[in-house]
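Please, structure for the following, as tokens.
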Amino acid sequence: MILVDDAGAFLPAINHSPWDGLTLADFVMPFFLFIVGVALALAYKRVPNKLEATRKAILRALKLFCVGLVLQGGFFHGVRSLTFGIDMEKIRLMGILQRIAIAYIVTALCEIWLKGDDDVDSGFDLLKRNRYQLFIGLIVMITYMGFLYGTYVPDWEYRISVPGSTEKSFFVKCSVRGDTGPGCNAVGMIDRKILGIQHLYGRPVYARSKQCSINSPQNGPLRPDAPSWCQAPFDPEGLLSSVMAIVTCLIGLQYGHKHKERIMKWLIPSFSMLILAFSLDFFGMHMNKPLYTVSYALATAGAAGLLFAGIYALVDMYGHRRPTAVMEWMGTHALMIYVLIACNILPIFIHGFYWREPKNNLLRLIGVGA
């Protein structure tokens, strides 16, 4: 994501897809959720005290959620002006860390309380032992699809601040059910109703779509005939889409369970999920990261499973650990790296040392941004 944030504007192929479709950046979040699930299977391999484990899991999730509120709610917003603070009326309530916290706590509780004790000698035994976890994942997926395709989305209106004036109103005509376009989907409607539109992400990814941006797939001036929803806030880590993120974490949890012939038991479901995902996409249930559609969840989980199996074979089976040393270090410090760089802590620190004026900072001294 650091690469995407810094180079995505120049290389659209690695930036987030404006709506339907997959790019390199769209794999980052589900890959992280997948490996969180794998890690939980290892962390809760033995649980001597389920109540204590539950208490610690809830506390850890709350900490992660609160860190996300500070970092992604808008506290560190003025990198170059060295300003900070949050307007509580406009704080962004959801975000990447908040989504991870939600998926983490649900998956952790499933592993603590719903893991069977059956011996595993075959793939069927594995399914039998984890049947309650799989059932939870199925219920979550059905619930998501019910809301996405069954919720009626009425017409709605929003206001934004426009340079040269105070506020401008936009009317979005919907009156539709099951739409998965940017303006009239149930994911955005639920966030607007529950969280409030003022608490959503203010730079929607669909602003780079062909309908909105002259420079699509990059940001640019609005097209003269741009739809009314192009400037509407939309949270890519909203409530309903975070429900499907739980499924990705639960899939990773199954990969983390110890069993015989693990490579084949990873490869078969990975290829199966990819085939199902592309089939769903072909028949109209498109892969979409902002909505976190079922096809998107299956495609990214399948890809994560293949990558996981490949790294396991490379490192654990054939002993080639040295080539992955850098990735291992980044993995063990992922949250710290994300906080320091992707959330502007390190840039603010660098900009914070200056001579007389903020523009005379360390970057200017070494010739960056001069």
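Strands lie at 152-153, 156-160, 168-172, 176-177. The chain has 14 helices and four strands.
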